[in-house]
């Protein structure tokens, strides 16, 4: 059933896109594919891009996340290895990881660090140094 973005509460959005994904766990020989539907809201006009271009935009978005933010959070900051079971604790740790990543990116963009990796940058930080960055 087609609906307009306004009908589902997304005013200012020009289209909602549903993407069907199938995944297969290659470590389990008998595994059946799982199906997932992802929904994307965009302000792009329907006539602006075709289906193939929208698929490429979505793939590019996820590629940037997986190769950028997720890699830093998982590999550099050890997010997936973290065994925190308390929900609030996990949320706090995720916020701190986001903060560290954001501060590092700001410092790089402003040319205030020559350190080329988030891990090296974090190792050089102190609480008072990070606090000073937040107050700028």
Detailed description of the structure:
With 136 residues, this protein is of the alpha+beta class. It has helices spanning 51-76, 87-109, 118-124, 127-135; strands at 15-23, 34-42. A two-stranded antiparallel ribbon has the order 1-2. It is extended, with a radius of gyration of 20 Å.
What secondary-structure arrangement, pairings included, does this model have?
Layout: E1 15-23, E2 34-42, H1 51-76, H2 87-109, H3 118-124, H4 127-135
Antiparallel strand pairs: 1-2
Task: Fill in the keyword field for this structure.
single chain; 136 residues; alpha+beta; two-stranded antiparallel ribbon; 4 helices; 2 strands; 13% strand
List low-pLDDT spans.
Answer: none
Could you give the count of β-strands? 2
**Total number of helices:** 4
Strand content: 5-15%
- Ends apart, CA distance between termini: 50 Å
Report the mean per-residue pLDDT as an integer. 86
**From the structure provided, what is the oligomeric state, counting identical versus distinct chains?**
single chain
Q: State the helical fraction.
A: 40-55%
Order of helices and strands: EEHHHH
- Rg from alpha-carbon coordinates: 20 Å
Which shape, going by the Cα principal axes?
Answer: extended
Give the strand line-up of the largest sheet: 1-2
State the major sheet: 2 strands, antiparallel
Task: Indicate the structural class.
Answer: alpha+beta
